[in-house]
Amino acid sequence: MPAFKYALLMAGNCLPNKAYGDQPTGSEMRILVTGGAGFIGSCLIRHCLRHTAHHIVNLDKLTYASDLRSLDESLPSDHYVFRQADIADRSKLDRIFTEYQPDAVMHLAAESHVDRSIDGPAAFIQTNIVGTYVLLEAARGYYQGLPAERRACFRFHHVSTDEVFGSLDDVNLFTESSPYAPNSPYSASKASSDMLVRAWHHTYGLPVVTSNCSNNYGPYQFPEKLIPVVILAALDGRPIPVYGNGTNVRDWLFVEDHVRALVRILEQGRVGETYNVGGRSELRNIDLVRLLCGALDEALPDSPHCSHEKLIAFVADRPGHDLRYAIDASKLERELGWQPHMTIEEGVRRTVTWYLENRWWWQPIQERGTSGGRLGLAGKTPDRNIR
After folding, report:
1. How far is CA 379 from the centre of its chain?
2. CA quadruple 301, 306, 307, 309: dihedral sign
3. Fewest beta carbons less than 10 Å away: which of 10, 175, 280, 284?
4. What range defines the domain where residue 166 resides?
5. Handedness of CA 69, 71, 73, 78 (dihedral sign)
């Protein structure tokens, strides 16, 4: 029998509530991670393999934004296996649950790019809503067949976004009781998935916990999101696109801080509860872009494109662009003792350095053309020279 499967069969069935630190824990869980080849999912798996004793089954469909190379630095490991599958494929899910007998599901698989959702919402409905429904049903069937002692320990952790809450005014923060008001096809699909998870808990008794996070950034982020778009445009000397007038505000969360929170919530969060995860790093988009340009100037003082700020180009705004998001993470901080470690200034410096040093990862993505032209204009003419 393979070492990984033997370890799964021999692992303890329940993780005690205990303080979680940065050293490997002695307790083991068998965790099915959906979307584990994506940006946040791969960081979560790297973290678990380095800092916990958990066994990971990585389930990923391998869409355009998935990349198994993001896990190379933590592999091989006898605590890890990969299975390619679509979360909307019930028969494959049933086989994976039966084969690997997980103690928990961490559900991160999702279509996540707002601009893509404007141009093609169908994929977001299929994966984020239908896929979540199928996964919930597979998890429910599996959970109901477990012996009582294992049912008592099983968890389904649904990972979501602050975008489900819509747009904020200049003063308030999103809390766990904020009303849902999604304004894009992406956020509407994630809001729908959140409600399905809630319903499967209240109707069927599935032991769930949900987290809603602010904007993630860091190494291995697919180059269609703002921060890698800025970095790679600046390296090429291309215009750096800033939507509208750049005054939209986001709370930025370093991805490694986020995955520490996710593990803490899985291990210690209360069943049926929701936890907000934020970085306490609010910035206007234009100020974030200027911060990135400053970090690039510092890292590449001899670049012909210095000062990189001169490359900034204001472009047509995204339709329905929410003005401000900001997370109140005090419940997570108070109840589970989590705090973000990374300041936005240090996180930006680390992220810029990573992209400068890891062309091997992002250059093939650019060459495939999957991170190419401007999306999400809903029929408007794109600005020339902006990718």
Report:
1. 28
2. negative
3. 10
4. 29-219+254-277
5. negative
Is the pTM higher than 0.85? yes
Rounded to the nearest 10°, the torsion over CA 56, 258, 52, 64 is 30
Q: Are 122 and 189 in contact (CB under 8 A)?
A: no
163 assigned to active site: yes
Strands 30-34 and 104-107: parallel
Asked whether residue 241 is domain-assigned, the answer is no
Q: What is the pLDDT of residue 233?
A: 96
- Cα–Cα distances in Å, from 329 out to 212, 228, 278, 355? 10, 26, 6, 29
Region 235-243 average pLDDT: 95
205: left (phi over 0), alpha (psi -120 to 50) or beta: left
* pLDDT category of residue 373 using cuts at 50, 70 and 90: low
Confidence of residue 378 (pLDDT cuts 50, 70, 90): low
Question: Which of 163, 251, 257, 267 does the annotation list as catalytic?
Answer: 163
93 found inside a domain? yes
User: With contact defined as beta carbons under 8 Å apart, do 83 and 97 qualify?
Assistant: no
252 touches 289 (CB < 8 A): no
> pLDDT of 149-180, one tens digit each?
999 999 999 999 999 999 998 889 999 999 99
Residue 162 annotated as catalytic:
yes
Name the percent of the chain lying above pLDDT 90.
Answer: 83
CATH number of the CATH domain containing 87: 3.40.50.720
383: alpha, beta or left? (left if phi > 0; alpha if psi -120 to 50): beta
The tally of domains found in the chain comes to 1
Residue 332 domain-assigned (yes or no):
no
pLDDT per residue as tens digits for the range 332-369: 999 999 999 999 999 999 999 999 999 999 999 999 87
Q: In this structure, what DSSP letter does residue 130 have?
A: I
Burial 318-344 (b: 16+ CB within 10 A, else e): bebebebbbbbbeebbeebebebebeb
The better pLDDT of the pair 367, 108 is held by 108
Of the candidate ranges 109-113, 288-292, 329-333, 357-361, the one whose mean pLDDT is the lowest: 109-113
Q: Pick the catalytic residue: 186, 275, 325, 355?
A: 186
Q: Which of 28, 115, 162, 282 is catalytic?
A: 162
Does 84 map to a domain?
A: yes
